[in-house]
Amino acid sequence: MFLTGFVEIARTDEILVAAAASLTDVLKEISNGYQSKSKNTIKFNFGPSSGLARQIEEGAPADMFFSADLAQMDDLDKNGRLEPGTRKNLLSNQLVIVVPSDSKLAIGSPKDLLKPEVKRIAIAEPPVPVGAYSSKYLEAEGLWDKIKPKVVPVQDVRATLASVESGNVEAGFVYKTDAAVSKKVKIVYEVPIDKGPKIVYPVAIVKESKRKDTARDFLNYVQTPASKELFKKYGFVVLD
Amino acid sequence: MILSVETWQITLFSLSVGLASTLLILPFGIALAWLFARKEWPLKSVLETIVLLPLVMPPVSTGLILLKIFGRRSPVGQWLYERGVEIVFNWKGVLIAMAVMSFPLLVRSVRTSFSEVNPRFEQIATTLGASSLRIFFVITIPLAYKGIIAGALLAFSRALGEFGATILLAGNIPGKTQTLSLAIYSFVQLGKDSEAYTLLGITVALAFLFVWCSEWLLRSAKKA
After folding, report:
1. pLDDT tens digits, one per residue of A179-225
2. C-alpha distances in angstroms, A43 versus A199, A216, B11, B188?
3. CATH for A2-92+199-238?
4. Which of A21, A43, A60 sits opposite B71 (nearest CB)?
5. What residue ranges define each of the domains in chain B, with the CATH number in brackets?
């Protein structure tokens, strides 16, 4: 115990960042850049936003929270778990339609999903954010009632991708950043940002954090132009 | 196949916390199994059922209960926190999740091996004036030791496979609380299939080895 205490002082601070699983790759790359400039260490706890919010609610020692969903952040905010003035809507994402990369079906728009050769469409089941966003979007387009009978509700984004990859469904709805993860699917349609529902990834510092200065330092770093470029590289939309 | 430093680190971490968890529950498991096998008391079946619950409950719900108990917001978590002991997001959380989840398997296996010890030997020792403690260590344990080791191996294998309770209580923190199971989950989520398959191969090999040893011990105990 004494030894680790000593080493930590020598290396200065270590903060723990709870982050939605979909941010894993980009946040690792950003934190590598940060750690090469700073003496602080960033550790991550990656998981589904709802589980992370639950842990913070129970007093888990996280210093910062990157959520993939506003609802989780709102709940923590309501219960006074967030440091006032640190919450920020950092990123957005785009809904896309993916098909197996060897698919020969001509799908170029959401309307094409009505074609009889499209038999099954995978969409993550709400409350998974992408599922809720997809049905909201299709409703706004006036297509939901006709598409609904074809929808196969799946567990999460990864399951959506897996069912498209394997060809068990003809198409699926995921985020643009998720589609980039799989080489066996291709994007056939990107929902224009102004037409789709507003997708928000908020970030905040946890009120009970004992290393708020370091957390603030990292929070500033993820908003530098260099970090923003990395988010864009991974397909995220950076909000200003 | 050459394994990366990260893979080694995850494997060693899982094995050492799994081993610590098995050693931790062993004395309690043996004591409880012996009581279950040899003693009767009112409402014994209630305690037996409670001990078995983590075996059949969804691991995530066990994890949620543990998070409620050890989180800083609870009296227990607060008491520990004031004394500088952190369970949540810590390797100690991994240890507790593994211990709770593998305990029923240990108790069940060890209990069976105690039941198979012929009580005649213990009765004869009593008539010769041996104390119950002495009988336990000189007669019962030596006759049941293969079953006890088999049960410990089974509990150890279960601890290595633990996922649901661990991710809620200890988090999924690379280099700090990430076990083999959690790392496989992360790699699958990120679409990094080849990394996931490497870890999958390791878990299958380890699980096969330990369960095979456990079964072999049980078979040889039956023959003896």
Report:
1. 887 889 999 999 998 888 888 999 999 999 999 999 999 999 999 99
2. 26, 15, 19, 20
3. 3.40.190.10
4. A60
5. 5-223 (1.10.3720.10)
